[in-house]
Amino acid sequence: MTKKRIVILGSTGSIGRQALEVVSSFPEAFQVVGLAAKRNIDLLEQQVRLFNVPYAAVMDPDAARVFSERLRDLKATCLKGPEGFTRLAGLPESDLILVAVTGIAGLRPTLEAIYTRKNIALANKETLVAGGNLVMEAARKMGVQIIPVDSEHSAIFQCWERTGEVARVIITGSGGPFRGFSRQELKKVTPEMALRHPTWQMGPKITVDSATLMNKGLEVIEAKWLFGIAYDQIEVVIHPQSIVHGLVVFKDGSVLAQLSWPDMRLPIQYALFFPERRKSGIAPLDLVKAGQLTFEPPDLDTFPCLKLALEAGKIGGTMPAVLNAANEVAVEAFLGGKISFLAIPELISEAMNSHLPRPAPELEEILAADEWGRKHTERLIEMRN
Q1: Nearest to 41 by CA among 30, 53, 17, 57
Q2: What is the pLDDT of residues 215-272, one digit of tens each?
Q3: CB neighbours (10 Å) of residue 104?
Q4: DSSP3 helix / strand / coil % (the chain, rounded to 5)
Q5: Coil, strand, or helix at residue 4?
């Protein structure tokens, strides 16, 4: 059996670490040929040595220099900076690229992987939020398969049948740690509180996005591009138990849903092995143990980030890139104690109101809008402080 050769961009993050757990469970099926991290070189070094990886990339230049010195006793090649990530994404020795980096940093490497005809397991929402039209058009032209890794999009992907028969899709969300809170209660929220997610173990940025419901907004934009459907065909439903991950509603009224315990290793394994399925060590769902499953509409007034994302998606052009950039800066400021929880949507709204979107942007225009959104939001934060 020929091993599938994979590259993991973001191997030290939550998705990357769990992907390597899956790889470890199937040593006969996979060969890791490339790993990349932003600056966690301690863990990256452990991973490179454990999996005997020939190529590694580090985004942070200073960390990359230290990392290169550490690998002197190995034959591994160390790549540096954004260019290193992009080069790793187009590595000739690879078959599949898992894009698990956070933020806009995933866009250029994803396009490079597409242009070099690598299939992609996509765990980076922001790539399609900012550059969905660009990415999906390139994938169609190059005949590249994009397999979603997010649990919600993986669920819809698994339930999808013929496009003409789909009426709408439903994205579920736990509601985060503050489901049911009033705006008055949200004024007292701290970063520590926001990082205590009720059902999932994720990185800090995506955990805060879950708490603000921005995560669901980004997922709606991602779903629009992944599945080629209109925004009015996408519904968000709050499902606190995180058992039903996504649903597809067909024109005849039938509904298919994907259910499982909340464990990201399952959609990761599905993406890595696609189109085949393999037995996993993950316990199958027991409906009796799962108990009652409940569903409710999202509270758009208390959690306006979801509404802002829907607005940005419908405006289109460079507006989603600005939404995403402003959100990344605002979340970082919140985690750093510089702004309040409620200031996150306020800053995003201010940035969007100040931006004149460009229609059908190319890559450089998207990156310019991202840079503008970051700098503008940083200025807004400075003015507040």
Answers
A1: 57
A2: 999 999 999 999 999 999 999 999 999 999 999 999 999 999 999 999 999 999 999 9
A3: 24
A4: 50, 15, 35
A5: strand
